[in-house]
UniProtKB/TrEMBL annotation:
Organism (species): Rotaria sordida
This protein's name: Uncharacterized protein
SUPFAM superfamilies the record matches: ARM repeat
Length: 391
């Protein structure tokens, strides 16, 4: 083992980052693979891998160089998948297992990598992550987390799974074919079980009536990451799974959400904002198809309660000077209002609220492209054609 040479490669990547040519990065990866193949001891190998990836996880997820096809298909990433992700998920049962940090760091690396999926590299990304042993291990792990408190004090495990599900979400945003859906269906099924479990119901009921509270990593996995993942699993052949989830959690979430003061939303923390955005999006727009009408009819009462509260959020936002507007919170409000307009019966209800159109017109003057866009999209749904032409 050439520790000095490993350090030299790591230092070079640290110093030059992704300004290095792809061929130079491949040379480092080749060297890493050669060194790792000489090591049989799992702990030693994990320690070295931690050293090797340290400059990679410090790179911004916006950097696209690692997502080059020549790098994604490199054996180094296969080693990270097989010997860290799969192996360390399996070792979660071992007493005194202290390898959580390396599992977390590789999970972060994969999430950053999959943030940059394109039509050019999607085949290589699928080959790397749509791997039965990895998917199966995630399924088994989620089953345990849902049915046992054994790992409740293991934040590295909860965070690692959140990052891996996020990576898979990025992948599923690209076109997934039938045999890939078959591979992923057990994962979606266990997530549906988690979302409808007593654990999730208890988490929602235990939320405080404000938007500044602390969410632990278990909360984030169940209430934020799982809904985010699920909204990208568009299995329209089995709508009953989506319906069953909403039948159990929609009213619980609606009861909590509508108990919170609209005036407090502008102070929403980043993690709470993410959870509210992803959970609401999944509950209101779980699928992207003409079958959305099924949800409109069954869940109208809760949708009406939710959209009324979101409109109150918008009213509260407009009570402050434009330079004091919380841009992130306002973006979410407008996106959610647009999602509700996709339900025709909810849209008709929104049309009965005289304050809504004037408030949306005010939003078109906010100096933010996305806020303006969603304001106009809502207005296009709410206003009559003649009024739109006059405007």
């Amino acid at each position: 083992m050439s520790e000095n040479s490993i350090e030299e490669h790591v230092t070079t990547i640290h110093q030059h980052g992704l300004s290095l040519p792809v061929e130079r990065l491949k040379t480092s990866f080749d060297f890493f693979v050669t060194e790792l193949k000489t090591i049989d001891d799992c702990e030693t190998r994990s320690s070295l891998i931690g050293q090797m990836i340290s400059p990679l996880i410090s790179l911004s997820f916006k950097d696209k160089r690692l997502a080059e096809v020549e790098l994604i298909q490199h054996d180094f990433f296969l080693i990270l998948r097989d010997q860290i992700l799969i192996e360390h998920l399996r070792r979660r049962h071992m007493e005194g297992n202290l390898t959580g940090e390396i599992l977390l760091n590789v999970s972060i690396l994969f999430t950053n990598l999959y943030h940059n999926i394109t039509d050019t590299n999607v085949a290589e990304c699928k080959h790397l992550l749509l791997h039965y042993p990895l998917i199966d291990e995630l399924v088994q792990c989620l089953n345990e987390l849902n049915n046992s408190d054994k790992h409740i004090n293991d934040p590295h495990l909860f965070r690692s799974i959140s990052f891996l599900l996020t990576a898979l979400k990025h992948l599923q945003a690209k076109q997934i074919i039938n045999n890939e859906y078959s591979l992923l269906k057990p994962l979606f099924s266990v997530i549906a079980q988690c979302l409808t479990s007593l654990n999730t119901i208890a988490m929602i009921r235990n939320l405080k009536r404000n938007f500044t509270q602390y969410l632990n990593h278990r909360n984030i996995l169940f209430l934020d990451t799982m809904p985010l993942y699920s909204q990208w699993y568009s299995d329209y052949h089995d709508l009953e799974i989506f319906l069953q989830v909403l039948r159990i959690v929609l009213k619980e979430f609606t009861d909590w959400f509508t108990s919170c003061s609209p005036n407090s939303y502008r102070h929403c923390t980043a993690k709470m904002g993410s959870m509210i955005r992803h959970f609401t999006y999944f509950l209101v727009r779980p699928i992207e198809s003409d079958k959305l009408k099924i949800f409109s009819e069954e869940f109208y009462d809760d949708y009406r309660r939710l959209v009324t509260h979101w409109i109150l959020f918008l009213s509260s936002t407009l009570s402050f000077p434009s330079n004091k507007i919380n841009t992130s919170a306002t973006r979410t409000i407008l996106q959610m209002l647009y999602n509700f307009t996709l339900h025709l019966n909810v849209l008709n209800y929104m049309k009965t609220m005289p304050i809504l159109i004037p408030m949306l017109l005010q939003m078109t003057e906010v100096d933010h492209v996305e806020i303006q866009l969603n304001a106009y999209r809502c207005l296009g749904k709410l206003m009559r054609e003649d009024d739109i032409k006059k405007m």
